[in-house]
Amino acid sequence: MTTPAAVIVDAAAYAQAVEDAVEAAAAYYAGGTSPLDDDAYDRLVRGIAAYEAVHPEQVLSGSPTGKVAGGAVEGDVPHSAAMLSLDNVFSAEEFTAWTESLARRVGHEVTRFHVGPKLDGLAIAARYTAGRLTRLITRGDGTAGEDVSHAIGTIEGLPEQLAEPVTVEVRGEVLMTNAQFEYANEVRTQHGGQPFANPRNAAAGTLRAKERVYTVPMTFFGYGLLPLPATDPTLTERLNTSAHGDLMRLVAEFGVHTSARTDIPDTVAETVEQVLARVAEIAAVRAGLPFGIDGIVIKADLAADQQAAGSGSRAPRWAIAYKLPAVEKITRLLEVEWNVGRTGIIAPRGVLEPVVIDGSTITYATLHNPADITRRDLRLGDQVMVHRAGDVIPRIQAPVAHLRTGDEQPIAFPETCPRCGSAIDRSEERWRCAQGRNCHLVASLSYAAGRDQLDIEGLGATRVVQLVDAGLVTDLAGLFALTREQLLGLDRMGETSTDNLLAAIAKARQQPLSRVLCALGVRGTGRSMSRRIARHFATMDAVRAADAEAMQQVEGIGVEKAPSIVAELAELAPLIERLAAAGVNMTEPGATPPSPADAAAPDGEASPGEAPAAAPEAGPLAGMTVVVTGAMTGALEKLSRNEMNELIERAGGRSSSSVSKKTTLVVAGEGAGSKRAKAEQLGVRLATPDEFGALVAGFHGGVTDRPGEPV
Description:
By secondary structure, the chain is of the alpha+beta class.
């Protein structure tokens, strides 16, 4: 969808718009802050361009339409070649029109496009002399930039020495990954500073800081390679005539970080349709990326096409940025609500002045915990940066501190549990009601009875409320002590519904240990982690006997998570014993408990992609890592994704949610998109749902719609 342009009605409004845009750009490029978010800035500049198209005689010399990005910033180091910015398109129609214009410029239809992510950071030029990094320069006004060589040695992915002793200039983007951004704000606030609003601002501000008492990591992504006056003539000729894709492979060979090592590597497309398909693939995985992108960069790949198209004063004519919908906006924090979850966790939620992000109206955003609110120095009435990508829950990243008016108020933290009035356990960053699960018993029991846990059909939230209000159930074990007479005494419970519910509860007793663990709702675990724990230890007794060191042997459980899991299992001991006494199964079919030698081995945490330590050796999927994507059909149609993962693990494999070089098999159903495309790119084996169903048929009774029920 095309970003709408701001409406500018007269010369006075035009002059004000130019002033606002220049001030916003100057604030961002000079200090990493801006009164406008990306979407608002884009709309303003498009409005300015639209007005100038109708009134060319009124164009002001300072208009942002005639400057490269960052043009408001003065620089004192001349660039070896103009460091231009990119023009934007916002829709498939606009991109197609651009390709038609490009074809007219070069005299033929372009058949090779280089497609890669538009990274959300700060553009720099890195100059290497005889393979050694000697200077870092910002984009500046495109002809000269600021010297930020003080940052040499602090940027990941930008080596101080190349793999070859060449004299070249590498251009790219400096940014902060999501993890680096969180760490940067933690360190910054510990030293009395205001938190950065977002990773882009954090990278811009950090790169320019010369005399800080602390350092924070940043990451470099190379996107260009060009010769310098002292470059070897043979290499100069190669750099000037090579396709862009070949140049990027050379950058990577030199040891510089590029998108090639990410989930969205640069690719080459031959048609407009292929480019748009790649745009859709990158957009689909945007929410899960560990770094920010705000679009896709499309370039004519061949040097001859680039030279024929040429460049304007602010942007090359052979490249374009296909902008994606904004995932960040600035809005006002009106209130903070305190909600209690099923395990008793007290979670703050920000109430926002409504704002549209990526097509959705956002009125609430997550706040992690009281300590996070304190670290970020959030206040009621603050203008805050809100981030949302895909289906990810919107989150408040930071206050935009330079927009404060002085009327903002401190956020009040609860003195007692906001749900039941009990005391609050403040021993960890995430506060918890002293009553734990009993504070929100209905939510806890409803979760335990869910399809991916104990799968007690007929026990929805309404029925759970009845049982709790009647005093028939005070914890999970109480469900297994219910009698027919007790249930018949409830409203709207006839003989048939009573007998069906009792049968579902009896069936739940036979669920595997992994589902029982999941039903307990141990903090820090979920469906996948519960399966890993169950398959590793095989029995509840072995799980409960594990100390923190033994728990770390389970894939994905590190030194921080292990102690809390062990402690919570100890806290749940009385409930677990009552469940066992009620006849609930406490073993995992097909799993073998680790031997004492295995339990004591100092292997540490398994690395991502490795099979669990106690994964079964038999089965048609033994040793395989399997990813399921798209809609399943045939024998697999009725299975939830969790049940598919259970099936994979029962058959000896390991389920995964992402495709990588370690993936063995991708089961691609209807509508499979980016994951199928990545599997094809990596040469990973693909299977249809029917082919996969045949592969696992007959194993543990074949594919099941519910455990123990053949389809």
